[in-house]
């Protein structure tokens, strides 16, 4: 389906309701003022997980590679890649990969961070990639992932998330990168 049809995906109210019903909201975690979206119950639910992977696979269809942000985005990206028959790339948190790495620093809802991919042994030039993460908050993470992959020569088609926290303005912050969200809060 690809990003031309993301509007249809966003309008799947039944899927959005299912995601909401299996999300555990945790106040003041990991720090005061943040309402953490714990998607563990959703990931463990056969019906919901399959519906989410189907929806994300239809968004990412046509990409050469599905990239997920460690760790929950990578978990979902691996399932989407398996559904589509593509490769998967886990974009790692700082300090997890052996050097040399490409690193991109950013600010997210709860403080500064950095993400990395290997600088050796991985040729992303000309590769079309959909980035997947669990939650879009301020957009810092997806923006950094987009910059990182573009620095590596990839062609980022767009990003997809399970939950978009609209009040934090992430979509606007990372424009013109296209973002498809399966649910919005
Ligand atoms: P941001 O960069 O601000 O858009 O934050 C998105 C990243 O941080 C994602 O990788 C999420 O896993 C995590 N994150 C940020 N805010 C939340 C939240 N309220 N609940 C769950 N995860 C969050």
From TrEMBL:
Example of a GO biological process term: purine ribonucleoside salvage
EC number: 2.4.2.7
Pathway recorded for this protein: Purine metabolism; AMP biosynthesis via salvage pathway; AMP from adenine: step 1/1
Gene3D superfamilies for this protein: 3.40.50.2020
Location(s), subcellular: Cytoplasm
Start and end residues of each Phosphoribosyltransferase domain: 51-164
GO cellular component: cytoplasm
Keywords: Cytoplasm, Glycosyltransferase, Purine salvage, Transferase
Catalytic activity: AMP + diphosphate = 5-phospho-alpha-D-ribose 1-diphosphate + adenine
Primary residence: cytoplasm
Molecular function as annotated in GO: adenine binding; adenine phosphoribosyltransferase activity; AMP binding
Top EC class of this enzyme: transferase
Coiled coil: none
Subunit details: Homodimer.
Function noted in UniProt: Catalyzes a salvage reaction resulting in the formation of AMP, that is energically less costly than de novo synthesis.
Family affiliation: Belongs to the purine/pyrimidine phosphoribosyltransferase family.
Entry protein name: Adenine phosphoribosyltransferase
Organism, as annotated: Mycobacterium ahvazicum
